[in-house]
Design brief:
150 residues; mainly alpha; two-stranded parallel ribbon; 6 helices
């Protein structure tokens, strides 16, 4: 990530997070300091956590119950756990056949709170083969895979 390469980490990124939280916390938004679309091409979850921890320790969480989340890879639960800074658990925007089970895992938490998927269900998505899914497009199994909260 260029930010870490060219600017002091995590201090400069923490200042950016604090600015965004201060500027937008009274609005009806979900504050998301992290976007992990392609986790191999960015700073990892532990590195981002340094900046988030700095902001939370220094300024505290945003007021008014503003939700905190991230476009995670594969999920906020997997990246940061149940007892973390995240107040809106979600899965990232990878294909649902390979990753909706992460959202199901979030729904089955003892105290799941607010949660959502970062990508709409696309039944015709043709996933890479995975041992835990492998549903063929437009099959009954494929259509069932996009239903996670029965």
């Amino acid at each position: 990530m260029c930010w870490k390469k060219y600017y002091q980490w995590p201090d400069s990124y923490a200042r950016f997070i604090q600015y965004i939280w201060s500027r937008y916390q009274a609005n009806n938004v979900v504050l998301s300091p992290i976007h992990l679309d392609i986790i191999s091409e960015t700073v990892g979850p532990r590195e981002y956590m340094k900046a988030i921890k700095y902001v939370l320790d220094k300024f505290g969480p945003p007021p008014f119950g503003t939700l905190l989340s991230a476009n995670a890879n594969p999920s906020t639960l997997e990246n940061w756990g149940e007892e973390s800074w995240v107040t809106l658990q979600q899965i990232g925007n990878m294909g649902e056949h390979n990753n909706y089970w992460y959202l199901t895992e979030i729904f089955h938490l003892p105290n799941p709170g607010t949660r959502h998927t970062g990508q709409l269900a696309v039944v015709r998505y043709s996933p890479l083969p995975r041992p835990h899914r492998g549903a063929q497009r437009t099959s009954g199994r494929s259509r069932a895979a996009v239903r996670t909260a029965d």
